[in-house]
Amino acid sequence: MTHLFVKTAMKMVATTSLVLAIAINTNNLAHAAEFNFNWKGDTGYSAKGSFNYDTSTAPNVIFETGLGATKNLQSLSISFFDPLSNLINSFTPVLNSVSNYSYLRFNFDSTTEEIFGPFDVGKDDDLPGDTWLNNNLALVDEGFSNQVLAKEFHLNNRDAARAEQILDLSNNSVQVSKVPEGSIIIGLLAVCSLGFTLKQKSIQNPKSKIYQCYFTGIKEKFNF
């Protein structure tokens, strides 16, 4: 009977902790806005990325440029793919509200949920494999009006010899879609559901690796 009571108490403590963790993180998400974006070139190359910012402090129109602390963006990432959908490279130009990309140009209107104006996202440190997507407005903004091309957007990278080459061109704009807040919460619930299953399987051996790994991960995820 005592053993059963201990098991029930452990379940109640774990359940309560996880519910509180979800509540805390849901509250933090209340002011977070996350968006996905994508672009496709005329010959099939493509780019996909995401960005987020705090709606409680950001203006309706977000402007980011160059290196250093960003005004509003908390993170910005992008991945590039060839026509067969093979990954070329991935970069995170903005991390923890700091830009590490010298040529960053990013403008977003939260009222229309559209990316507009000069756009330059990726990485170009003059190294092999560097890849970036930009438009003519970004080139003009940087003073390279002599490089304006026939198509508005162009996907570029540097080859093994660090020479710049254009992979694809297109007049296609960068499309944006908002990540539903509910999907993030559902993801948290799924993690917790999996955790309960693992915990129940390991309840008779609290020192098992799977048990320890699960709760360590939960603590790191929710900071409690």
N-C termini distance: 31 Å
Rg (CA only): 23 Å
> Number of DSSP helices?
4
Average of the residue pLDDT scores: 80
Specify the overall morphology: globular
| Sheet with the most strands, sense and barrel status | 7 strands, antiparallel
The share of residues in helices is 25-40%
Class derived from helix and strand content: alpha+beta
Strands in their spatial order, largest beta sheet: 4-7-6-5-2-1-14
Number of strands: 14
Proportion of residues in extended strands: 25-35%
- Element-level helix/strand string: HEEEEEEEEEEEHEEEHH
Low confidence ranges:
9-28, 188-199, 208-224
Topology at a glance:
Elements: H1 2-29, E1 32-40, E2 46-54, E3 61-65, E4 68-69, E5 73-81, E6 87-95, E7 98-99, E8 105-109, E9 114-115, E10 120-122, E11 131-135, H2 136-141, E12 153-158, E13 164-170, E14 175-178, H3 181-202, H4 209-222
Antiparallel strand pairs: 1-2, 1-14, 2-5, 3-8, 4-7, 5-6, 6-7, 8-9, 10-11, 11-12, 12-13
Helix pairs in contact: 1-3, 3-4
